[in-house]
Amino acid sequence: MSDLTDSPGLTDIDFFREPSAVDDPYSYFAAIRALGPIWREPHHGVLMVTGYDEAWAIYQDVETFSSCTSVSGPFPGFPVPLEGRDDVSDLIEQHRDKLPMSDQIICFDPPKHTAHRALLMRLLTPKRLKENEDFMWRLADGQIDQFAERGSVEFLSEYAGPFTFLVIADLLGVPEEDRPTFLEDMQGTKRKRAMVGSAKENLEHNPLEFLYAWFGRYVEDRRREPRQDVLTSMSTATFPDGTMPEVADVVRVAVNLFAAGQETTVRLLGSSLQMLAERPEIQDRLRADPERVPEFLEEMLRYESPVKGDFRLARRSTTVGGVDIPAGTTVMLLNGAANRDAARFENPDQFVLERQNARQHMAFGRGVHSCPGGPLARAEARVSVERLLDRLGDIRISEEHHGPAQARRYRYVPTFVLRGLTELHLDFSPSA
Predict the structure, then answer these.
(1) C-alpha span between 106 and 364 (Å, rounded)
(2) Domain 10-430 in CATH 1.10.630.10
(3) pLDDT band at 46 (very low <50, low <70, confident <90, very high)
């Protein structure tokens, strides 16, 4: 493992603060991969994992690597020093509640994570997901109706955002009469949510807090007066051992699904339509054979992962891929880089619709923390792409907003965690 603190070029930039790494993280990933699959960046001492096999090994090893800093990584830092010890497990347990977003399932470790994930999966039953998908088809048409005759759309605000919001609101049973106010509250926190994973964000603030009040009221109401609805099923779900969760436990699980699921799916939809608009030949192939939409989406997830990476904190000193990792070290598993590891994917920087192993991507993580909402995101994207291709013809990038083909202007969410456009203007002709 090299530590090139005085080398010129991309390896010198601060990945967590440099705007160029937001616009184009892949050049940075390629530069640090050339130094080895695990490399210590010089600004914050984070071990950056670009190797597919190395990332896989760390994702699977929950005994050695804690998820307590999954969201925050090196910011704002651990409450107490972690250096000089071979095992910091006791310090993690003593101080984890002081870490940002420590009440969210993505920051839990087993066995607590195991119980809460099981609670979440009781909300994502096959029956409920099927009912939700039926709703998606109707919703997709309703959203497209609002701009289909116009010939242009700002895709993220006029389709992707409202669509994903309403899909998850339906899945969780948010009453229709509450949805306009709920959406208004969500829009009011949109900027703060987008900044999670930014070194500029005050990470002691929980950007999901406003959702707690909404779901807290729902859970308490349904426990007092059960009904034949989704919220009642959610509110009365039990842990695997049969015990009833605290209201706060149910709320946190619902909030995580609501916020995380919406954010990442919006990014997936944005990158998918960007690709389709830039590559009209792919549009034509998918219109001719809609059965290929799922394979398009798997390659899209590999090529442009909505999540650049996840963090882990080494509980004890260990070795991965021949690299020594001291206890207390912050590790960043760069999903977006692992998905372009040439040792796993041939011609990794090319979008290849027929790629046979695209589904091996790490866009949804791996191991016990793999995204439980993956099937939901895939369904949302499949329904959306099929309906958009069916109803809109000749989808193309708006040159007025994004410039000509050889000089595109795109802006990306200013975060080191998420990867996605802030807006996507499209032109099209209504299909016959």
Answers:
(1) 12
(2) yes
(3) very high
